[in-house]
């Protein structure tokens, strides 16, 4: 049967999110998570729907992708379709042909889980490998240790705290207080917790947003950051522990995150919070 590529409406994104939840399990490789799309709602509901893509056969969604930028698609497929030859061939076509509306001409990247037949076909088509990333995982079967500092929920009243820390942590001017407002207005924020670590003077030192995929499923850290004025004091570990504890309270079985391998400090922070590193992975890239 024919595989159909679609861009869902704002209302039908729910179907893509539902299958993404189903596809998450603790033994799965690092892959697109419902929280990745949930975090994108900081840009708005219509804007998020516009960057989601689904591939379906006979009415069943087999793959979901999200354009993290115009030249980067992050995607995954149903667990029983990792070696589906028809799907893999269709994905390569859609990623390769700009008129399909997924990726443009020129240099582009694909983030896809390890083990997909897609990787073999991309290699045959001359796609290369990008910079290494390190996935990190922590089991949440046992209680998470107390972070030892004051943790507060980042509500609408603390929206500026979130923006300020993210701006400093990632050296960018993009985050604004509207991020928090739009996330809370999005249809999936019930699956998230946004937390801040505050010092004795009431300053927000670090923030984290974590996303559940449902009880018994792995949760996601996206994003975590420490303000430059508070680095070197263990706040990264502290806020990560707080996020892990929140996910455990929400029923998550584990928590995962992926960071560029050159980010040695970030990897050390996650390991200090009880995460274990998995083998490196890399995006597939097509150069100009």
UniProtKB/TrEMBL annotation:
Assigned keywords, A-Z: Transferase
Sequence ranges assigned to domain N-acetyltransferase in this UniProt record: 149-288
CDD domains xrefs: NAT_SF
InterPro entries membership: Acyl_CoA_acyltransferase, GNAT_dom
PROSITE patterns, per the entry: GNAT (PS51186)
Gene3D superfamilies referenced in this protein's UniProt entry, alphabetically: 3.40.630.30
Name of the protein in its database record: Acetyltransferase (GNAT) family protein
């Amino acid at each position: 049967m024919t595989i159909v590529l679609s861009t869902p409406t704002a209302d039908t994104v729910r179907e893509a999110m539902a299958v993404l939840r189903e596809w998450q399990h603790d033994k799965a490789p690092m892959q697109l998570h419902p929280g990745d799309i949930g975090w994108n709602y900081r840009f708005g509901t219509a804007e998020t729907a516009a960057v989601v893509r689904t591939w379906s056969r006979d009415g069943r969604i087999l793959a979901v992708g999200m354009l993290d930028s115009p030249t980067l698609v992050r995607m995954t497929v149903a667990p029983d379709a990792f070696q589906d030859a028809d799907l893999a061939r269709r994905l390569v076509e859609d990623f390769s042909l700009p008129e399909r509306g997924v990726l443009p001409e020129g240099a582009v990247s694909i983030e896809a889980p390890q083990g997909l037949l897609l990787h073999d076909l991309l290699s045959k088509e001359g796609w290369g490998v990008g910079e290494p990333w390190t996935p990190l995982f922590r089991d949440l079967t046992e209680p998470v240790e107390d972070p030892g500092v004051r943790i507060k929920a980042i509500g609408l009243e603390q929206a500026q705290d979130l923006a300020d820390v993210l701006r400093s942590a990632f050296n960018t001017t993009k985050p604004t207080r509207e991020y928090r407002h739009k996330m809370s207005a999005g249809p999936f924020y019930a699956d998230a917790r946004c937390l801040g670590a505050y010092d004795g003077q009431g300053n927000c030192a670090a923030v984290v947003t974590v996303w559940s995929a449902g009880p018994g499923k792995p949760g996601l850290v996206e994003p975590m950051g420490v303000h430059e004025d508070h680095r070197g004091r263990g706040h990264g570990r502290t806020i990560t522990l707080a996020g892990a504890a929140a996910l455990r309270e929400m029923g998550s079985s584990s928590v995962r995150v992926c960071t560029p391998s050159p980010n040695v400090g970030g990897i050390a922070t996650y390991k200090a919070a009880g995460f274990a590193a998995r083998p490196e992975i890399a995006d597939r890239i097509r150069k100009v």
